[in-house]
Each structure stands twice: as structure tokens, then as C-alpha cells.
Known about the structure:
This protein is mainly beta. Helices cover 7% and strands 25% of the residues. The strands form two sheets. Strands 1, 4, 7, 8 and 9 form a five-stranded mixed beta sheet that branches.
Amino acid sequence: MKNTRAALLRRPLLFAPALLVLPAHAQAPRTPAQMEGPYYPQAIPADADADLLQVAGQPRPARGIPLLLTGLVRGPDGAGLAGARIEIWQADAQGIYLHPRDARLDQRDAGFQGYGRAVADGAGRYAFRTIRPGLYPGRTPHIHLRAQPAGGGAALTTQIYFPGEPRNETDGLLRSMPPAARALLIARVSAVDGGQRAEFDLFLA
Ligand SMILES: [Fe+2]
């Protein structure tokens, strides 16, 4: 690796537990659902792993600001859900989705995977390597997410937002929610070597 992303790209996808362990509290508010939207992939790409920065067969990584997305999936009793399945899908750095409905599909970044899957570890932790999603008309930046407990159970579909984005104030979908619910969909973002980290915990009903 010879660019500024080197450190982030090398970092293991799961972290030391101390970084993510939070006290279990059964009364935690459930993560609000949001619409799936029109861009869930029509066909799951051949490379659908948790590293969206690297596409199998593509010589270069994704364009954009690298983002390490991590969190904990909890069940109704507050305990981490081992083996929960998580999917994300999002726009590339230019705001283009991996979907034939996107009018700019021919301009999308072939080095960005656009969709990925992860399985939570034994403590319910998940991690993806992706980018900060680009803007597209009518929305504030967001990452679509779906989570389901291991072995089935009700899936949660929602969207992850970023703090401090000016368009958060005018996004119809985000503004349609009460402030307390809205706050639950905004990730905690920090700078890390080579990019950013976003933490987003999920509480499934
Ligand atoms: Fe979207």
C-alpha cells in the first residue's frame, strides 16, 4: 500500500472487544426502521463480502473517503446477537448506485463494491470497510442496512446517517421522524488513520 489509506486497509475488520463493549441494557430503544428504497441490488454482485473498498478482479480500490463501519447487533434482551447477518448497500463517491435504475450507472466507480454482507461475531459485532457515500439528488448521505438474527427472525431494514451533514436538515425521510428516533439513526463518526470510522449499534425488536 502506498497511499494514505494504507493503515485503514490493513486494519483487521474486527476490533479488540474493549472498543465496542457497551453495558447491556434491555430497555434500549429499538432501532427505527426506514424504507428499503429503490436501489437494493437487482442482482447480488459476485464479490459481496464485507470489504466494499476492494472488488475482486479490480486493480484499484474504491474512490472516496474510506470508512470503517462497525457496530453491535443486539436482540430484545440487550444481548449481542452472535451470527446476525448484516447487509449494506450505498452510493459510490459520486452518488451512483449499483442498480440499473440509476441513470448514471455507466459512470459508477467499478472499484467500489456498492453492496456487502457481514456476519456478526460471537459477541454480535459486525464490521465493513466502505466509503463515505456520495450525494445524489433529493437525499442526504446515507448507507442502507438490513440486519437479521441468525437462523431467521424478523429483519430490520433501515438507513444510517452522518452527523453534521447540512442536508440532514432538509432530508424528507430523516425529517419525517421524531427527533429521538432520528438521533438513533445517526452514526458516531471519528477520524482514523487513512479515513473515518462510523459506529452504529442496532437493537432489533
Ligand atoms: Fe439511498
